[in-house]
Write a structure and sequence with these properties.
six-stranded mixed sheet; single chain; alpha/beta; 11 helices; about 15% strand; 6 strands
Length: about 240
């Protein structure tokens, strides 16, 4: 079971606030193509695709790529911005053996209850030598994440509930996949802190749902107090962990 329910309210908030702009997507495209060489006919699995923003980006970047979008939440699938999203999850992927050239998981790994089982299933659908690309926040590596600055309780929730890099590496090593890269990627999450504050939706963020109502309210006050004086775009830093 995922850390949060991903009901219709969550899905609506996610679609409204979590789809990245071109600046942020460009930084991730550069990082991804250090490990993946796009080519016509390549099959890429977007596992836990949410409302489909990454599948849409992949299809736009690499025409001719067969992007398979898989998502366990019916509410997320209903709001998907791409057609043909399949029901499934990391323990039961609706793909043939050795059927894909890469697997992408964006802010998904912490929702997987049995990482070793998921690693074995992901390995099953991968072609030999193909990469798994995991975009995530990890415990101890969250200094560049805005939520953790304004909600220290969210930082504690991340450290207490999300798998560490070492835990993910160990799970995938058991399936015969080893680390090929780990890098921090800086993205433009919003044009400004003020715009981020104005558009904040608690339902869109797992970490904010894991903390108390009082802790959330205090963080909102800190965010709104800081927003008027902040200049420039809001930059967040997440990790890209690659295994093959």
């Amino acid at each position: 079971m995922a850390l949060i329910a991903y009901d219709r309210a969550d899905a609506a908030a996610f679609e409204a606030t979590r789809h990245l702009g071109d600046d942020a997507l460009g930084a991730w495209r550069d990082a991804i193509t250090r490990y993946v060489t796009p080519r016509p006919g390549m099959r890429l699995l977007d596992l836990g695709c949410g409302t489909g923003s990454w599948s849409r980006a992949f299809r736009g970047w690499w025409p001719g790529t067969d992007v398979l979008a898989v998502e366990p939440s019916a509410a997320m699938r209903e709001r998907a911005v791409v057609p043909g999203v399949l029901a499934g999850d990391a323990a039961d992927i609706p793909v043939d053996d050795a059927g894909v050239d890469a697997v992408w998981l964006s802010t998904v790994i912490h929702h997987i209850p049995d990482l070793p089982a998921a690693a074995r299933e992901i390995r099953r659908v991968l072609k030999p030598g193909a990469p798994v690309l995991i975009r995530s926040a990890f415990p101890g590596r969250h200094d560049g994440i805005t939520l953790c600055h304004f909600w220290p309780e969210a930082k504690a929730a991340l450290d207490g509930t999300y798998p560490t890099v070492a835990a993910v590496e160990a799970a995938f090593a058991g399936a015969g996949l080893v680390t090929a890269g780990l890098e921090a990627v800086a993205q433009v999450s919003a044009p400004s802190l003020a715009e981020a504050a104005a558009g904040l939706r608690r339902e869109a963020h797992t970490l904010l749902q894991l903390i108390s109502d009082d802790a959330y309210a205090r963080g909102v006050e800190r965010l709104r107090a800081a927003a008027p004086a902040a200049t420039g775009p809001l930059i967040d830093v997440l990790d890209l962990l690659v295994l093959r």
